[in-house]
Specification:
The chain crosses the membrane at residues 25-48. Keywords: Membrane, Transmembrane, Transmembrane helix. The relative contact order is 0.14. The longest helix is centred in the N-terminal third of the chain and has 36 residues, at 16-51. By secondary structure, the protein is α+β, with helices and mostly antiparallel strands. The chain starts with a helix and ends in a 6-residue tail after the last strand. α4 (72-85) runs antiparallel to α6 (137-149). It folds into 2 domains: 2-51; 61-177, no CATH class. The chain has helices at 2-8, 16-51, 61-70, 72-85, 124-133, 137-149, and strands spanning 90-96, 101-109, 112-114, 117-120, 154-156, 161-168, 171-177.
Length: 183
């Protein structure tokens, strides 16, 4: 179609090879722009999938049940530990990630909810949150060790207690520990 338009506006004495070269340049530029757009589009899809855990390992309810059956004593140990070290009128939801970071460190102190995400363990922010609970980094280390023994990544204090088995994408797979059940 472009060739037809070029021929319609062709003036006598103008070399058609020049127009042909210009069209080749135009198409090359168009192809480069389309290529960059395609790469950008694919990159965005991969980024979104990664952000929502599309490349993470998926965990099933069966694996949760197997973990509970195999680590029952350790799970109740961490449940009893968290409820022993949490002060009255305070609550904590904490989740450890692999890189020395607390991916979740939410507190309820005096009825006030304090939401905290991606808190580095060796930071002033972590120290101030630990201070609100009357904890030390040693308390945090012990909690992490107990969670590791239970093959879990996080815990929410209180009765009933929720222990995070694993994260599958953005979904937290929980073990709901009912206080009426014996350990």
């Amino acid at each position: 179609m472009i060739v037809i338009i070029v021929k319609l506006f062709e003036k006598p004495g103008i070399n058609l090879l020049v127009d042909n070269r210009e069209m080749k340049i135009f198409f090359k530029i168009l192809l480069v722009i389309c290529g960059i757009g395609f790469v950008f589009f694919v990159g965005m899809i991969v980024m979104i999938k990664a952000a929502f855990g599309g490349f993470d390992k998926d965990y099933s309810v069966t694996e949760l049940k197997e973990n509970f059956a195999g680590k029952r004593a350790e799970i109740y140990d961490v449940k009893n530990y968290i409820n022993k070290i949490i002060p009255p009128n305070k609550s904590v939801e904490i989740e450890f990630s692999k890189n020395n970071t607390l991916s979740i460190f939410h507190l309820i102190v005096g009825g006030r909810f304090d939401s905290n995400w991606d808190v580095k363990i060796n930071s002033n922010k972590a120290d101030s949150l630990l201070q609100k609970l009357g904890w030390t980094r040693g308390t945090l280390k012990t909690l992490k060790e107990k969670l590791d023994k239970a093959n879990c990544i996080g815990i929410t204090s209180g009765e009933p207690c929720n222990i995070s088995f694993q994260r599958s994408g953005m979904v937290d797979i929980l073990e709901h520990i009912d206080p009426s059940k014996s350990n």
